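Notes to self, branched-chain-amino-acid transaminase:
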Amino acid sequence: MQEKEMIFLNGEFLKSCEAKVSVFDRGFIFGDGIYEVIPVIKSKMVDKEEFWERFKRSLEAIQLVLPYEKEEFENILKELININSLKEGGIYIQITRGVASRDFAFLKGLKPTVMAFVFESKVLDNELKDKGISIVSVSDIRWKRRDIKSISLLAQCMAKEKAVVANADEAFMIENGKVNEGSSSSAFIIKNKTLITKPFSNEILPGIRRKNILKFAKEVGLMIEERAFSMDEVYEADEVFISAATLLLVPVIKADGKLINDGKIGEFVPKLRQKYVEKILAEANEN
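result:
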């Protein structure tokens, strides 16, 4: 990821080095805010409607209101893409409750802090799609409202650090002996032509990619089971993969040091990824 120079903050487009947020912002003090990431292809936002659905859901869950109408905010994001000449990558958006004296309760009448920046990354031709990644399993120590895309990400940072120390790329979060999701991704396994992933609840983030992958799975001939699965099932799976905003789908070829499918990428993950590429390219071309 390479962040671009110009950002948006509270109604202004600024150089990132000139942007300032109060030390009393509740995002800084409490982590009182939410965030989102939108993929950008051919300088166009994709998965846009799915983004809005989840963004509004997170805002409502913590009683925040975006101080812009939908069309107005989309135009802001389009301008941010344009002034940074971004071709491919993503937009990071963060909104906090705003600036106030340190008080735990949700204070009323505050002006939300709204920030966004764009970054370059390879979405369509990411090398990980061809070589796969490795993961490690870690305990899921997060709070109980993981369905909210909260900016409070310390537990995920700790999980990712364990992956880095183990020379792995991602961590699968384990609770009660089952996989919830990745530290920054949704988790899937395929066994006997059946796609298995944990059903949506407050225990996982409602992954945008996950929602579309379930639809594509039927199109490529997979059955679907929405249920929790264990790490033993991961080790024995025919295929394992993760999904995330600017990764789309990436195969997992090693888990806790054990090769999956002898370390080879299987039949269905490339097919599912191609379906997703076709979907977002169609969106980029019609905008």
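- The radius of gyration is 19 Å.
- The mean pLDDT is 96.
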